[in-house]
Structures are given as C-alpha cells and as structure tokens.
Write a structure and sequence with these properties.
Layout (H helix, E strand, L loop, with lengths): L2 H12 L21 E5 L2 E4 L4 E4 L14 H13 L8 H13 L5 E5 L2 H16 L3 E5 L12 E2 L9 E2 L6 H4 L2 E4 L4 H11 L3 E6 L2 E2 L5 E2 L2 H14 L2 E6 L10 H9 L7 E4 L10 E5 L1 H4 L18 H14 L4 H22 L5 E5 L2 E5 L8 H4 L4 H13 L2 E2 L8 E2 L6 H14 L2
Parallel strand pairs: 3-17, 5-8, 5-9, 9-12, 12-13
Antiparallel strand pairs: 1-2, 2-3, 4-14, 6-7, 10-11, 13-14, 15-16, 16-18
Helix pairs in contact: 2-10, 3-10, 6-7, 11-14, 13-14
The structure holds pyridoxal-5'-phosphate.
Catalytic activity: (S)-4-amino-5-oxopentanoate = 5-aminolevulinate
GO molecular function: glutamate-1-semialdehyde 2,1-aminomutase activity
Protein name: Glutamate-1-semialdehyde 2,1-aminomutase
C-alpha cells in the first residue's frame, strides 16, 4: 500500500472523511488524496516521494510559489518576536496601508483570519449600515460556509432560498435570494420586487468557484446602477481574485471597462495572507464607522491581524508589486492556457479556456459557460480521466471540474512545457 493510502486510512479514523476541508478528499474525481509533505517553488511533494507541478497553490494564496525566500525570512523573523499578542501591532497598520494603496475603493479595512469570516462580517456590516435584512447571492458563487450563504434558489423570485447544508435552519435562509449568474432580466425583476429591502448583493467578480466565469461587463454595470438606485450595497468577494488576477484585483479590471465603477464593500483573503490564515474586508469610512468599537455592528477575533500572518501577507504583497510581476505572471498563465487549447484542438477534444493574471479555468466544452448550470454539464467522466492522467504524470490540477486553477511566479517555462506534454498524452 502506498504511504498516501496508509495515511488516508489513518486520517479517516480520526478526522471526518480524512480531511479538514471536503474538496481535499477527492470525492468528485475518486482515488486517494495525496498527503503533502512539503512544497518548494512550483512543486509539492507527497508522502510517496512523488513530485507534482502545483496548479492549486493552496487554492490561490501561493502566488509566489512555495517557500519564497523573502516571505520565509519575514515569517521566521516575525515568529521569533512572538506568535500572537491579542493587542495591536504596527505591522497591522502597514498591511492595511499596503492594501488600501492598491484598492482605491476602500478607505478602511479590518483584518480577520479566513475568507468565511470576512464575507460573514461584510454581510453583517451591510445589514447594519442599511438597516435591511435581505440580500442577493448568485448560483455557483461560493463565499465561505456561513449559514446564510449556504443557500440555493427558491422556487421563484418571490420566494427566498433554501439551505444547501444540513444544520442550516430554513429561517436563516429566508433572507437570501439566489439568482442565476449573468441573467440580466432576472436581476432587474429581483430589484423591482425586493430592491428596497435589500441590504446588499454579494458576487464573485470572476467566479472561481464555478471554475472561471466572468461577470459580464454589461451585467456588472447594471448591477452597480441598480444597487445605487435602490440603496443596496454592492459587495465584491475578491477572496480568490484579490491580488491574483492583477495588482488592482478584479475591481481594477471592471473599473477600466466601466467608468467610475467601484464596489461599496470589498472582501479579500488568500493572497493577502500569502498562505497564512488572513483575510480582510473594507469600505469607505462612512460604511466602516458602523463597525465596533465605533459603531453597533459587532465583529472581533482573538487571532485577527496575527503578527506572523501579517508578516507573511506583507512580504507577499511587496513582492507582487515589483515592476513587471503581473506582466510575467499573466504571460505564463497565457502560455499554459493557449498550450492546453492547442493540445485539445489537435486531439479533437471540445475545449474552452479563460484566464486573468495568475488564475485560469478550462472547460471540456466548445464555448465558455456563462452560468453555473452550463458549467455543471461538463463531461464529468472525461474530466476525471484527464485529472487522473495528469496527476499520474506529476501535474496537480484541482480535483473537481468546478474549481479554478492557479499559476505562480515560480512556475518556469519548463514546468509549463512539461504540463503541456502531459496534457498531450492525457487528452489523447
Ligand atoms: C470567493 C471566495 N470567498 C470566500 C471563500 C472562503 O474563504 P475561506 O476558505 O478562507 O474561509 C472562498 C474560499 O475558497 C472563496 O473562493
């Protein structure tokens, strides 16, 4: 038996499903999850000593690859000074200043420990600031596992959602309206029916939790207009896209395409922690003044703004601001996705692909899907076969057809070439 299998059996005895986050269990693709022993640069190594080119990057944070020297140095030096104080530090101010410098839509930011915590707090803030309860989310977008966000669509626009998880009471879901992504007529109608009672709309600008689906520009523009018209706050969940699709995140791209575009509240995670538990949400001073200790919206955390995590995040953000960083990362990602598309074409496999900065998605279908239902029509068997063939060849892709992929600055041209060679074989 392989070490991975031995560890998986041992893990299943003491951890539900053997994992601490469900997607790691490989349930969607079958087979044994790899137990990772270490990472270096673009690679991760498993318990059997196999090396993989890593296109998950811890689901987004590892934009510099594993063990970047400057980040490692910052973390070690911070850890020597102390792990946690539960009192303010200068590094929290430095990180907040660094984030705000790159995200002009925010004047203030609050640091937390996970994306889930950040979106949960953003919605509470939106509700507190507007005095309204209801909000809109979209099918296929994931914003963490807060009760009110684990909700699927009700039977029509007049009815609110139903829980997607056991343990979430119907009453908690009754304020969440779930709409189809990129469906303009439905959005108009929802605002007509409920606009005046909406606290906010939360959306992934590029939905990485249904692989890679962009919010259409005209849709985003109208969404912004409707939110403003009805006094609902627009919350952009950039936990995945933040500092990953570009230095100014996805909102920077939309601001270039829609004059004056900006969200009311933004949520970040992943890259801003560089692989450590760190996330954030921010907005104008006017909105943020509602947060405790200034205002009545309570929000807190023992480890919020942790000194080691902020050191890791700060070192990461400093590296990605170096001249040419995103140009090089974008070119790398482009060469990967163009190469994959060419290989698929040679083999007559239906294929479409998209990318931005260091984030990409590919679909085993001719046209890029625009919403969740189409994403889920992917030929699952073909995807699973492809996933396992790539894994056997030492290429670690996301183990589910609805997950995005990530390229880091550590991936070399040789890594991309090796990936394409493996894909040639896997798609045959
Ligand atoms: C867009 C988005 N929002 C929120 C979250 C939740 O973040 P976390 O897993 O850190 O709680 C995720 C996690 O993948 C995400 O992709």
């Amino acid at each position: 038996m392989s070490q991975n299998q031995t560890l998986f059996e041992r893990a299943q005895r003491v951890i539900p499903g053997g994992v601490n986050s469900p997607v790691r269990a490989f349930r969607a693709v079958g087979g044994t999850p790899r137990f990772i022993t270490r990472g270096d640069g673009a690679y991760i190594h498993d318990a059997d000593g196999q090396r993989y080119i890593d296109y998950i990057g811890s689901w987004g944070p590892m934009i510099l690859g594993h063990g970047h020297p400057a980040v490692l140095e910052a973390v070690i030096s911070a850890a020597r000074e102390g792990f946690s104080y539960g009192a303010p530090t200068e590094r929290e101010i430095e990180l907040a200043e660094e984030i705000l410098k790159l995200v002009p839509s925010m004047e203030q930011v609050r640091l937390v420990s996970s994306g889930t915590e950040a979106t949960m707090s953003a919605i509470r803030l939106a509700r507190g600031a507007t005095g309204r309860s209801k909000f809109i989310k979209f099918e296929g977008c994931y914003h963490g596992h807060t009760d009110a966000l684990l909700v699927k669509a009700g039977s029509g626009l007049a009815t609110f959602g139903h829980p997607t998880s056991a343990g979430v009471p119907e009453e908690v879901a009754q304020h969440t309206l779930v709409l189809e992504f990129n469906h303009l007529a439905q959005l108009e109608e929802a605002f007509l029916l409920h606009g005046k009672s909406l606290a906010c709309v939360i959306i992934e600008p590029i939905a990485g939790n249904m692989n890679f689906v962009r919010t259409q520009v005209a849709y985003m523009k109208r969404l912004r207009e409707l939110c403003t018209e009805y006094g609902a706050l627009l919350v952009l969940d950039e936990v995945m896209t933040g500092f990953r699709v570009g230095l100014h995140s996805a909102q920077g791209h939309y601001a270039q395409l829609i004059p004056g575009f900006k969200p009311d509240i933004s949520v970040f995670g992943k890259v801003i922690g560089g692989g450590m538990p760190l996330a954030a949400f921010g907005a104008s001073r006017e909105i943020m003044k509602h947060l405790a200790p200034l205002g009545g919206v309570y929000q807190a955390g023992t480890l919020s703004g942790n000194p080691v995590a902020t050191a890791c995040g700060l070192a990461t953000l400093r590296e990605i601001q170096k001249p040419g960083f995103f140009e090089a990362l974008t070119a790398k990602t482009r060469s990967l996705v163009d190469g994959l598309a060419a290989v698929a074409k040679e083999n007559g496999v239906p294929f479409s692909v998209d990318c931005e900065g260091g984030m990409f998605g590919f679909f085993l279908m001719d046209k890029l899907p625009q919403e969740y239902q189409t994403v889920m029509t992917t030929d699952k068997e073909r995807f699973n076969h492809f996933f396992h063939a790539m894994l056997d060849a030492g290429v670690y892709l996301a183990p589910a057809l609805y997950e995005a992929g990530f390229v880091s600055a550590a991936h070399s041209d040789a890594d991309i070439a090796a990936t394409l060679a493996a894909a040639k074989h896997a798609l045959r």
